[in-house]
Amino acid sequence: MGLFYDAALDDELWVGSSERIAKAFGATSTVLKLHRADEQVSLVEVTPNMIVADKLRDWASHWHSRDLWVERSVSFGLSRIVTDDDLVSEEERQKTGFYREWLRHLDIYRMLGAAFSAGESGIGVLGIHRPEDAPQFGEEERHRVSILLPHLKRALNLSQRIAQTSFAHAAGFESLDAVDTGVVIADTGCRVLHANSVAEMLLDRSAEICVQGSRLIAHDPALRAKLNTAVQAAISLSEGELRWSQSVIRIDRAERAPWTLAVFPLRPRWPNAIWQRPLALILMRDPEYPPFHIEMLRAAFGLTRTEALVAARLAQGSSLTDICKALNIGIGTARTHLKQILIKTGTARQAEAVAVLGRSIAASGPI
Q1: In which band, very low, low, confident or very high, does the pLDDT at 206 lie, cut at 50, 70 and 90?
Q2: What letters, b where the CB count within 10 A reaches 16 and e where it falls short, cover 181-194?
Q3: CATH class for domain 2-172?
Q4: Count of other CB atoms within 10 angstroms of residue 58
Q5: Is the pTM of this model over 0.85?
Q6: Which CATH number is correct for 177-285, 3.40.50.720, 3.30.450.20, 3.40.630.30, 3.40.225.10?
């Protein structure tokens, strides 16, 4: 039984479980699968002799989704232990394509098992099989499956819930990497629990603030005090203890535009969150980074490549003179591109175009 619960925590441990079940019941094959609400069938684990050649996979999927034994087991009653004799007569068995095509190919004739609820995942199925010349499964074996089934059902449901939670966490963190804002999740000691890719790049490029020994550290003592105070205040607010103090911090840089960060309270609300304790969410923006996505600008506004390059630099605060130097074009050419940018963004002034460009999806696509 412990094997099933271990497999709930690590999907790779399901491998081999079907062979162990088959051996325990003197069977030749075993299948554990999920019939989902969208009519898709997922094979959790099968014995090697039920694995078909690649060229037969569509054919096998067809019969797995039209499993007569599963249909009858569901009608018979979920979690009820059944054998093939309970589900089909000998005459009916011989007439069905399910037996004549599928089971005969696998040398399966006798079955012991059950269909059971797998929660939102659909219907779970356990099937233990023998060939025609083997004895039918008896009452003692039914009883053993009745002991096995609750543990298998619980482990499979747990496995599905863990998989859903893991997917939600992975999707959440992956989504953070797609935004143009640096995102850091920190605890009360400014220890970084997660940083998205933009935050990692900003901190790696910064001479004012960095991560040392897993902690977010500002080199200037006054800035460090502001950061620590903001983090503590945000966490206290998340705990419901204190009124939130000022959270926006400006970070000045020599001969460069300043960048800013803001600190917010964070208490994970999703079920089974990795961190349930109150935390601080730190958002970082650098006007010089990340760069605009040129191809996305072109697709969004119908710009030529040079127009998109000019638009991106305008949106990041560059003057036409600076753009001319950077792109090695004349001021007349730059003004021509600007006119086209205004037309294609539906704006009348450079400042309006910059606002439209800065709020577009091209400013927040994946790095």
Answers
A1: confident
A2: bbbbbbbbebebeb
A3: alpha beta
A4: 9
A5: no
A6: 3.30.450.20
Give the C-alpha separation, 306 to 67, whole Å: 60
Q: Give yes or no on whether 2-172 and 177-285 have one common fold.
A: yes
In this predicted model, what pLDDT tens digit does every residue of 81-99 receive, in sequence order? 999 999 998 888 888 999 9
The whole-angstrom separation of Cα 38 and Cα 288 is: 47
CA atoms within 13 A on the CB side of 308: 18
**Bridge partners of 82?**
113
Q: Name the architecture of domain 294-363.
A: Orthogonal Bundle (1.10)
